[in-house]
Automatic annotation (TrEMBL):
GO terms for cellular component: ATP-binding cassette (ABC) transporter complex, substrate-binding subunit-containing; maltose transport complex. Residues 4-234 form the ABC transporter domain. This is ABC transporter ATP-binding protein. It comes from Ferranicluibacter rubi. InterPro entries: AAA+_ATPase, ABC_transporter-like_ATP-bd, ABC_transporter-like_CS, ABC_transpr_MalK-like, ABC_transpr_MalK/UgpC-like, Mo/tungstate-bd_C_term_dom, NA-bd_OB-fold, OB_MalK-like. It is a peripheral membrane protein. It is found in: Cell inner membrane.
Length: 373
């Protein structure tokens, strides 16, 4: 179980810098998931680790061994691609044993490695088939099997489940988790899928525009985002963001007037946060699941149901609360996202009262840095 160290890695294409000096260490046996908006450099970084890209500066080390300039085949990494990248004319067994064959390993050793990987992935009955005789999920298992037989120091996954349907994706998520537990391998996994990141990662690396915004456990990032970008990126639906202004500040307590609310809100900011100045523009953050039940001390906001999404036990409401609007939302309409129990039937146009517990507010300063979580 080796560690993987990314040390101040920069990758430029001509005048464009896709990765602007990124550092993190995957500890032995960690499952690191890299997330971030399209074009932020996730795949470039993964391909750089694999040796499919030459980095401009910085270093990549596995267990302290510098592999920055090593050939892809000499790095001790194996990569699983979104499109499987299987050899169409070879059988499943040949696909899985190919790298070992190229390395000149004896036939008996190759057969044993293939049999072992096939057992782990439960594809023993498909070993004699060619890729075109397999389903998408089976093909992806073969692609993973091909990585397993190489017994790499580090597994790299580039959105391996995104071509699968929802049911198969959730099954494969569980299987990849099992595989990680069984192999105890160090893994780096790139995805667009929040659920994959939240459920599989030991730590998540959130990237944005070629830089790392934050690294931490899924719950740490969800509950204690370093800034508004991370707060907005993790969580579905997206956190509600409300504009506000500091009207008073004393000690670690600040008073905020939020756009669309008539009452000022008093909040404590974190001990290590810089106290904002009176007059500063700030952002209040509120997750959809934190709307209250109308208990004393909560702020009652009259609203109207705009959109209803039934999620089974719960319902997701997009509520029109007049001037109390979220900006920077997915839908751009300013409606607040709020979870409700499905026991109360709601339809578009129905009036409802949103209860906001001030304790649930996140607060971000004018630069988007977290003042309170
Ligand atoms: P996605 O989630 O859409 O796959 P990503 O985060 O994986 O995005 P990358 O594929 O790493 O993003 O790309 C990062 C940036 O580098 C993008 O702006 C992309 O256009 C640019 N880029 C990638 N490959 C090249 C290349 N060969 N030449 C020039 N620019 C490139």
């Amino acid at each position: 179980m080796p560690s993987l160290q990314i040390d101040t890695v920069v990758k430029s294409y001509d005048s464009f810098t896709a990765i602007k000096g990124v550092s993190f260490t995957a500890e032995p046996g960690e499952f690191i998931v890299m997330v971030g908006p399209s074009g932020c450099g996730k795949s470039t970084l993964l391909r750089s680790i694999a040796g499919l890209e030459t980095i401009t500066s910085g270093a990549i080390r596995i267990d302290g061994r510098d592999i920055t300039h090593a050939e892809p085949s000499d790095r001790g990494v194996a990569m699983v691609f979104q499109n499987y990248a299987l050899y169409p004319h070879m059988t499943v067994a040949e696909n899985m044993g190919f790298a070992l064959k190229m390395a000149g390993r004896p036939k008996t050793e190759i057969a044993a490695a293939v049999a072992k990987a096939a057992k782990i992935l439960r594809i023993e009955e498909h070993l004699h088939k060619t890729p075109k005789q397999l389903s998408g999920g089976q093909k992806q298992r073969v692609a993973i099997g091909r990585a397993i037989t190489r017994a790499p120091d580090v597994f790299l996954f580039d959105e391996p489940l995104s071509n699968l349907d929802a049911a198969l994706r959730s099954q494969m998520r569980v299987e990849l988790g099992r595989l990680h537990a069984e192999l105890k391998a160090t893994m780096v996994y790139v995805t667009h899928d929040q659920t994959e990141a939240m459920t599989m990662a030991t730590r998540i690396v959130v990237m944005n525009a070629g830089l790392i915004e934050q690294v931490g456990s899924p719950l740490d990032l969800y509950n204690r985002p370093r800034n508004r970008f991370v707060a907005g990126f993790l969580g579905s639906p997206r956190m509600n963001f409300i504009k506000g202004r500091i009207v008073a500040a004393g000690g670690r307590t600040v008073t905020i007037m939020a756009e669309g609310l008539t009452m000022p809100i008093q909040l404590q900011i974190e001990p290590d946060a810089d106290v904002p100045a009176v007059g500063d523009v700030v952002t209040l953050g509120l997750r959809a699941e934190t709307f209250g039940t109308g208990a004393p001390g909560q702020i009652a906001v009259p609203a109207r149901v705009a959109v209803v999404e039934s999620l089974g036990r719960e319902t997701l409401i997009y509520a029109d609360a007049g001037n109390l609007r979220t900006f920077d939302s997915e839908s751009q309409d300013g409606y607040l996202a709020a979870h409700r129990s499905s026991q109360v039937m709601l339809r578009p146009g129905d009036p409802l009262t949103l209860s906001i517990d001030p304790a649930a507010f996140y607060l971000f300063d004018r630069n988007g840095e977290t003042l309170r979580f």
